[in-house]
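Thread: L-homoserine complex, take 2
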Amino acid sequence: MAEPLNIALAGLGTVGAGVIRLLDANAALVARRAGRPIRITAISARDRTKDRGVDISGYAWEDDMTAMAARPDVDVVVELVGGADGPALTLARNAILHGKSLVTANKAMIAHHGLELAEASEKARVALKFEAAVAGGIPVIKGLREGAAANRIERLYGILNGTCNFILSTMEDTGRDFADVLAEAQAKGYAEADPSFDVEGTDAAHKLAILSAIAFGTRTDFASVETAGITAITAADIAQADALGYVIRLIGIAEVDDHGGMPRLFQRVQPHLVPFDHPLAHVDGATNAVVAEGNFSGRLLFQGAGAGDGPTASAVVADLIDIARGDLGGEAGAPFSIQVAEMEEMAPAASGHRLGRAYIRFLVADRPGVLAEITAAMRDAGVSIESLIQKGRAEEGGTVMVAMVTHEGPEARVTEALRLLDGSDALAGRPLVMQLLGE
Ligand code: HSE
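Output below.
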């Protein structure tokens, strides 16, 4: 068998320990598939003494992880530190500079600096691979770059954050509250170091920006992803959606929008009402699912565990196997499927003209005239209401929930209706708007 592929592992959190376990458990199988053994030579993390449940005594320890980039006994640096900037980015830049290939699970870094790193890796003719950065164990990047490479992707959407999906589906199943279920997701190792990245939609937006670039050949544009999280969703919203025949899921959507004759990139992460009979309605727990609609392949559905040590380690090691086989990452080494110089700079699309049905939930004062005020704003903005319900009767001076579903219409009309209601003393807090996921 050929010489081993030597790797340095930076970061020994959930995923790092998972990579060590996987390479140990599946060593023979990985070597046969890769054509040579994959061997860890050096490791680095914040705390050398912490018990991670894996034996690290056989690897060289580096206190300064950046030093791993220069080690002659390292072919590939595996960056599992996280964070868009800071040590992870320094290490990534250095690794490429020293002619090492880079494998990373760092979606924030790739969403923000992926083009710079890809360009550097193309020049250095080393591989840059980040399958583990998107949707955990699901080979969706491989699926798009390789399996669906012959297609123009018309639309891409899916469930891209395991923590949010776990929280929403567990709230749905158990009636437990948000904070309690978030704590469980953190204990299971799904959540980001800063869980606000999960629940505010940022993590899903990072992943969507990466997938958009690969699917549409456009330069990554994280800043233009319209992002809303799940923190405002209550048990009452979930019950109301259920009564209407929907579940609530955080969905990322991207497509090229030709409205106005000029192609623009639409990217949004927002909780949606998903009809019971849609495949994404059955995606529960920390599972992720991505739908890509190819112009020749038709609808492709990628589904699997989107977070956790095993699935993410599986994606990291798959990238290492590709590198061991000699794959730089696409034709002439293009991490985003086409070379950075060929990627298109596409302006972000507005959303006002988009046609859709919306769920709008208000918390309102329970007094005469409030419904009339809300429906008048809808009328004045040209929003047609399909159904409307008020839940319960408030104690003296309390608030009640009013939820409505609109007929299909331009999103700008809903925005205008809410603008008309802005500042009304009938409303307690900001209304919650969620789109209904169409076909
Ligand atoms: N925090 C992420 C999630 C982990 O919940 O999906 C995987 O990227």
